[in-house]
Design goal:
Elements (H helix, E strand, L loop, with lengths): L6 H4 L9 H13 L6 H13 L16 H15 L4 H5 L1 E4 L2 E4 L12 H14 L8 E5 L5 H9 L4 E6 L2 H13 L6 E5 L10
Parallel strand pairs: 3-4, 4-5
Antiparallel strand pairs: 1-2
Helix pairs in contact: 2-3, 3-4, 6-7
Length: about 200
């Protein structure tokens, strides 16, 4: 795994204070040199996580110094990112359909392309809702973080969801996400291998 040099050793002729803006610039260049496809975004997400603020706030604090403690934590995350660990696993969450989902190595990382599936389901239900006698019953197989099932439950107040996964750890994460977004009462989680429980959906 590549080692991350101390920023101070890279900037002997620069001011000693490491501000948000300076740290982002340095980190972006370092990650770009290690093959990151989105080095600036990676740097911003990691620094925002360390500072405990929304990413957008970094742009209003470019001139603020970053503490030694925060720089140490940030440096460790950057080193791991440079070694290939996904940003979502490093910070423990990923945005999907404007919702924040907890993710761990036990789950896949929600992909932006999958939002198209959610949109398709919402469109289909809109067409059927006028003639349906009950709300939609949704089966989410291989739920992982629960991104699809939980998102649909938040968008369709009358929906009930059965979400299954063969991983107990993944089901625990999905349950936490359902609770986080206030739909735990309509999302049933089950440890199951593929379609073991379709009859209960």
């Amino acid at each position: 795994m590549a080692e991350v040099p101390s920023p101070a050793s890279q900037a002997a002729d620069q001011p000693d204070v490491w501000t948000v803006g300076r740290l982002l610039t340095w980190t972006t260049e370092w990650l770009a040199g290690r093959g990151s496809e989105s080095p600036r975004l990676d740097a911003e997400v990691l620094l925002a996580a360390v500072r405990g603020c929304p990413r957008i706030l970094l742009y209003t604090t470019f001139d603020e110094p970053v503490s030694d403690e925060q720089r140490s934590r940030f440096r460790d995350l950057v080193r791991r990112r440079g070694g290939g660990e996904p940003v979502a696993y490093l910070v423990g969450n990923r945005e999907f359909f404007s919702l924040s989902f907890e993710v761990t190595p036990a789950t896949l990382i929600p992909r932006p392309e999958t939002e198209g599936l959610v949109i398709r389901v919402l469109d289909l239900w809109k067409q059927r809702a006028r003639v349906a006698e009950t709300g939609p019953r949704i089966l989410d197989v291989g739920t992982g973080s629960g991104a699809i099932g939980v998102t649909l439950a938040t968008r369709l107040a009358e929906a009930t969801v059965l979400a299954t996964d063969q991983s107990e750890a993944a089901v625990a994460v999905a349950a936490a996400n359902a609770k986080r977004h206030g739909v735990a009462d309509r999302v049933t989680l089950a440890v199951s291998d593929l379609l073991d429980h379709p009859a209960t959906a």
